[in-house]
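Hello,

Following up on my earlier ticket. Below are the two sequence lines again, exactly as submitted.
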Amino acid sequence: RKEVEQDPGPFNVPEGATVAFNCTYSNSASQSFFWYRQDCRKEPKLLMSVYSSGNEDGRFTAQLNRASQYISLLIRDSKLSDSATYLCVVNDLTGGYQKVTFGTGTKLQVIP
Amino acid sequence: DGGITQSPKYLFRKEGQNVTLSCEQNLNHDAMYWYRQDPGQGLRLIYYSQIVNDFQKGDIAEGYSVSREKKESFPLTVTSAQKNPTAFYLCASSIVGSLTYGYTFGSGTRLTVV
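Thanks for your patience. The regenerated structure is below:
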């Protein structure tokens, strides 16, 4: 099983739609979680952290389910500018060393 | 403004040549990382460093070398031993020991073997 697994997509959705992505992780001791956004041929940029209690930032909501070992990202009222690849990132601190594992990303295409 | 600067943005290498990719940060981050991204694939860790004069191999270190003589700088050399070097290379930095914040990435170097 991959350490961090995402559906590669692409998810093609119309403007205004609500779309959700999941990401599963294999290490139950993983400690922190993030969603990054990567535009075509650009570097990844931090979208939001994922907290146990769930967190919301405008149209974006991230949730963590430790029991089932997955995180999710919900985008409401999709905009054309949301088209990008969304990377799930899992962070461990083992023996004082930070280990960060990236998922391969889920591609979102918002269509007019 | 603080950030990470990678240069050059595009780099062309002839087969058999070594090339060095630059990465400089002014975020006062202790940890720095090099990743490689191939089309349609995820990021793979090449090398990382958590302190000056110390670095560790990542998952795909063969054919690469690094140095960390200054906190701000973490250059990556792609040697002729790297058989398939064409890829997008990303440098990142973070605060050591803190899982609260994620990585900050540079804008990347796109390396092509000609």
